[in-house]
Amino acid sequence: MRARNLIGLTAVLAFIATPAVALAGDSYPHPTPFGPQRPYEPDVAGPVNIDRGSVTYTEDGGSRYGVKISFTSQRSTTTGVEPAAARQFVFLFDRSVHFNPYMFPTCDRSVIAKHGAAACPEGSQVGSGRAVFFRGGESDVLVFNTTFDKGLRGVLIHIPVTGAILENTLERVVGHYRDDYGWGLNEILPVSDVPPQERPSTKEFYVTFGAVYKGQSFVRSFARPGAELAVGVWSEYVTGQTTLVEGTITRP
């Protein structure tokens, strides 16, 4: 199943178009298919998700090209029931955007799992946000610079209330995505013993990528001020539905 929502964005406020309804039988290709693979699970029956989104760019106050990029995701269904749980997300960044993970300390997921986020080294936090759950409640979101096997770089998105530590690998996009994007952060939600159709879902998710450490910016955009930048989020759900929310934003 497929749904593509177009979002018109500015550096301050995102204007969201009426979302397309997912259509059976179609799908969007994975933007970063050559990184870590999620264990196979068969699709399950469930609702059709509707994704909406917005993005803001702000200067990070550090280096000349440094920016913070904030994603807002809102999720609902065509029938009003709880959205199907996610399998995977890919945050898509304009070709002008580059990451600077080597200049920042890292935090290993084992540190967070054993000792909590407060034990991560100073300077390793490179983002933050908030998760709002469909079944009630919300949580802060913490983002940490990290390393993975085989030399991969990326971030950990930690949701303290649930204990989730979500690995996001930084990968080059492929195929037609290269027309607009350079890098993607590929987030795989782990398989659990909870049946897919019973897994909880968020209805709102906010996350900002960007930080300054010793004068260095974690995220940089080399586009000129006023340039139009591409942004997007690709999603896959336990029903097999995929969605792609895309738009452009003006570089501040």
TrEMBL record:
Q: According to the lineage, what is the superkingdom? A: Bacteria
Keywords per UniProt: Signal
Where would one find the signal peptide in this protein? 1-24
Please identify the protein, giving its name as recorded.
Uncharacterized protein
Question: Whose protein is this, by species?
Answer: Kibdelosporangium aridum
